[in-house]
Design brief:
The chain has 23 helices and 25 strands. The protein has about 750 residues and is an alpha/beta fold. It folds into four domains: about 100 residues, Response regulator (Rossmann fold, 3-Layer(aba) Sandwich); about 160 residues, Histidine kinase-like ATPase, C-terminal domain (Heat Shock Protein 90), CATH 3.30.565; about 220 residues, no CATH class; about 130 residues, no CATH class. The chain starts with 5 loop residues before the first strand and ends with a helix.
Length: about 750
Amino acid sequence: MTTRGKVLVIDDELGIREGCKRALTSQGFTVDVAQDGLDGLAKIKANGYDVILLDIMMPGIGGIELLSLIREHDPEAVCIIITGYGTVQVAVNAIKRGAYDFLTKPFTVDDLLLAVSHGLEHRRLLLEEQRLKALEAETQQLAYEKRKLEEVEKAKATFIRLVTHELQAPIAAIQGYLQLILDGYVEPEKQREVLEKASARAQEQMALIADLLTLSKLRDARQREQATEVRLDELLRQVLEPFQAQAVEKGVLLRANIEGEIPAVRGIAGEFKSLFANLISNAIKYTPAGGSVAVSLRTDDGKVIGCVSDTGIGIPPEARDRLFSEFFRADNAKAMALRGTGLGLVIVKQAVENAGGQIWVESELNRGTTFTFTIPTMAVAEERPEPVSIEPKKGGRMSLRIIEKSALPAFVAGIMREYEVVGPQTKEILPNGKSQFVFGPLTNPHQLRLDYDTTVLPPKKYLLPQEEVLFTFDTGSLAATPRFDTQPRVLFGVHTCDIHALALLDAVFATGQRDEHYLKRRASTLIVGIECLAPCDEHSFCKSMGTLTADKGFDLHLIDLGQRYAVEVGTAAGEALLARHAAARMADESDIELLNRVLSEKWPRFPYRLDFDGSELPNLMALSYKDPLWEELGQRCLSCAACNLVCPTCYCFNVVDQVTLDRKNGERIRKWDSCQLDEFARVATGENFRHKRSQRQRHRFFRKGKYIPEMHGELGCVGCGRCARACLVDITPVGVWNKLYQAHAS
């Protein structure tokens, strides 16, 4: 006989237990009984039930308390409260705690059967809904993974195209030289010269193939050797020896400085040799005769710090962001007519990262370049607990820690003793009952609202203030004194869209004319992100813009798992912050399973709001320059500039000088500005290059969808929706771009 369902009756009255069991068993139900809460909870954990009949008043664990424990174990459990204390307040309290229905003693068999039957149907619907959600989540995840795979395939195709080009060029040259000889165009006495040229190109080909093989080995864990204890000082002495002769031959002074005893590091000796060889070789190659190259090693704070400095040609500012890209060579390096594969620095960066380190470059054109890298010492690496490596639905490998929610205020309080902590907090309650949130300095950890939807202004205002003094000056001596903000600061609770926005600003202000005011403030700022698990409101479209998750750009990143947070460690500074102030533990299998479920359930909640892939925006904008939509937007626009002022990626500003009344001193100040204001594009002659509102609207959308992607490789809009909320005439990015797509999709 097929059972209608499994029921558990928990009641301290024998008559109620046995009466319910007889009535339900006769109707085809499988029924177990428990005389108190502890017995009932043990049976629930051991067996699982479709419906639980639960008495309110019992010795030991009371019904209300037990209800919470049951729901924690099985969120879809259907609990029906049985009580002789049938007040409305008891019913309301039980329903709030997750009870499905309410029976008051004494009750009839019909009342009991009706409540249990309805409860069973409710559970069936809950489980079906859960199954459909899981299926939808899986479908969404498959779509997401398909898109990511397509991106990987696109990158792979681009790399193969570049490799093919780089391999074809020397072969074509060699073939050309040999064909000249075979066709009799080269006189016998000149053939050796041509063959030497062919041999040189063949050597270039071999060098390129060797570098490609090295890079492939560095990137594929299956090909790499086993990591061992390595002494970098001994390795450096071995690598330096053959380069001494090369430096003497060119007239370059090569010197090394190893400060004190250098602790061992964990890694692969061959990879470290490639690291030193490429950096030293490049330094000698691009340093003119009479110059110098200095190599140093030292230890600080558990890291081995290596530097390779030269007095060579330097690296143009516009080339630094692409320096570690495959086959990239700066124009001034190409102009020296020195051959290179364009893979040396890619190999260097991969070798450093494989060892758990970091590398960066400082350079001044025609003055020299310094590459600095750090590698954690072996002692530090062994002290650090092995991180749990997982492949969550979010994508990417993560080093995970766990913080209980109850421990978060103490964590924040600890950070506040060391940093200014800025986070989302309630500004006011609006007439519609919703809270309005802003980023502001915390005076106590309980102000922090990680459940916020969005903030009026983005957190960028703490890296690029609305108004700041750049420097003060003396009008008599013309002396200027820069004013830098180096306040140690933590931006706590930054949404993923804003993390992408700050990463874009980092690229903007570090490219070309570097903005030291922004960069010094950024260097003093740590970012603690918070994963968005539901859309902020109907205006957000982060999923369409690819900013729904963030794999980098933060020091720590929190993901809400209910009673605790998963914490992704993004940088060494974030890990140190966690170690100093948080009672965090390593994630275990149950944490990872819960994290995967939370992240997989998140995706279906976010719709794709653009009718096309956001990566196609540059192409769409190129087709839309003369679209009549711009005139329509110009007629609606109020030129209030609200869209720019709330945008996390807008960075336009105006600079003014303010002089004291005695005209002896002054300040140079910069303030946020907007391309939507009439005077923005007005020049000294009075000409206004965008005097029409339609032109200004077009410029705004072209900046976000075409100009910034072409300059920095990232879309200039992160889909936060702030501009749509702020606009009084309903000009929204989603509306504009979908209309343009409908007009130009064909």
